[in-house]
């Protein structure tokens, strides 16, 4: 009996050894042939609309062509609620495979080892890297030399520019100014030489208003081109050489002195301290000044340009470079890309999903994925014009156009495909012919032109700590007091004011900002 049992055991052992490769091969085949499940938490493009339907065409294409079973969940619209949801998943070690995350939360997740490095994914996504992940983007998510997130462009950056009245230049026989002194000369001519030919002393060289933001303290964005000529545009300098508040740099005094010249020589619209945004925009449409910094759509979109076209059918604005300062510096201003970070969880990496995630993202940047996620189905939700720009003109059923409320769910992931490229810009800002003058206006082309002009990278500058109310008030009021003559702008007075500013909390604010920038890898 014992011998029979031994023979049976030997037989079973041999059978298992013979069949083992077959079983192993079959198991491997099954794992590779079945779809890889990717769980994605995304930021909805339209938070008030619902998610894509279960029969969304993209689901089937992604499954058939990429062998991926995509499971998607929209993050809450409120940022704090987003943070709560992501942090709760992190605490439970149940982060999804791919998810959008705000930078402060992302930083902590990296520190806790819950987010995977993505450096090895970039080579797997050549098309997407070319459109989404440039060197600035990759640097934005680097910690200790490794990239831990995929940073896609957010809202359109660099969408403002310096504009000048070309018809005024032509009337006075002037060339486009390039340096601060040439700008000054043109501003004087626009102010005192009757560029509109109406025989009245009612024009000025430069128009502005105080528009302050976290990114642009002091005089705000409308005077950034002047500050940029002295390399002190923006609240913060985030370069290794000059990290800290621009206010503390000696060049700030030089920049302020130039603006004081503009005030003293009366070449800036004297209402600039009283104007609000609407007043400023009404003023240029009424022909009050000839140089300004303005946003592309606020200037060139059909409804915004119409009043100027009506008032001045022969009038013409053009985009020009900001002025070059004494040391050759020039900048329209500072910009930040408002990146959306998508992170890959370490758990997904451990489960071997990084290659599938890279394949999914690369598909989103293919022609198929780009148009499907961005605008829906061709000939159903949009039609391409001769330049490949989606339009609703000519649809057999206009109610299914991509801008219609009922079709918005089909493009909820469009922010994962968009990169602020020409197709998107032209779809958003179509050209048109003006009613009064018959000119062709193209706000999309204006935007692209503005983006090619000199700008200063200040990525993350809007995330640095804000000053307390007293420090902020002292800063803003003090700068204006020097310009209005309430304080005499001399080096001695300026240095004394800076010392007082540091004492009341300005130095503490500066140090906190630099520490935050260093901790968050924002200094370059």
Rg over alpha carbons: 29 Å
Tally the beta strands: 19
Sheet/helix structural class: alpha/beta
Helix content: 40-55%
> What fraction strand?
5-15%
| Individual helix count | 21
In this structure, how is the largest beta sheet organized? Answer: 5 strands, mixed
Counting structural domains, the number is: 2
Short description:
The chain has 21 helices and 19 strands.
Secondary-structure blueprint of this entry?
Elements: H1 2-33, E1 36-42, H2 57-66, E2 68-74, H3 79-91, E3 98-101, H4 103-111, H5 126-131, H6 135-140, E4 142-143, E5 146-147, E6 150-152, E7 160-165, H7 166-172, H8 180-192, E8 204-206, H9 224-228, E9 236-237, E10 244-245, H10 250-264, H11 277-285, E11 289-295, H12 296-300, H13 302-311, E12 317-320, E13 334-335, E14 340-344, H14 346-350, H15 354-364, H16 367-375, E15 383-384, E16 390-391, H17 414-417, H18 422-428, E17 432-433, E18 440-441, H19 443-452, E19 456-457, H20 469-484, H21 491-519
Parallel strand pairs: 1-2, 1-3, 8-11, 13-19
Antiparallel strand pairs: 3-14, 4-5, 6-14, 7-11, 7-12, 9-10, 15-16, 17-18
Helix pairs in contact: 10-20, 18-19, 20-21
What features would you highlight for this structure?
13% strand; D-Maltodextrin-Binding Protein, domain 2; four-stranded mixed sheet; 44% helix; disordered N terminus; 524 residues
Give structural notes:
By secondary structure, this protein is an alpha/beta fold. The chain folds into 2 domains: 35-154 and 338-428, Periplasmic binding protein-like II (D-Maltodextrin-Binding Protein, domain 2, 3-Layer(aba) Sandwich), CATH 3.40.190; 160-335 and 434-519, Periplasmic binding protein-like II (D-Maltodextrin-Binding Protein, domain 2), CATH 3.40.190.10. It has helices spanning 2-33, 57-66, 79-91, 103-111, 126-131, 135-140, 166-172, 180-192, 224-228, 250-264, 277-285, 296-300, 302-311, 346-350, 354-364, 367-375, 414-417, 422-428, 443-452, 469-484, 491-519, and strands spanning 36-42, 68-74, 98-101, 142-143, 146-147, 150-152, 160-165, 204-206, 236-237, 244-245, 289-295, 317-320, 334-335, 340-344, 383-384, 390-391, 432-433, 440-441, 456-457. Helix 10 (250-264) packs across helix 20 (469-484), helix 18 packs across helix 19 (443-452) and helix 20 packs antiparallel against helix 21. The N and C termini lie far apart (81 Å). The radius of gyration is 29 Å and the shape is globular. The protein has 21 helices and 19 strands.
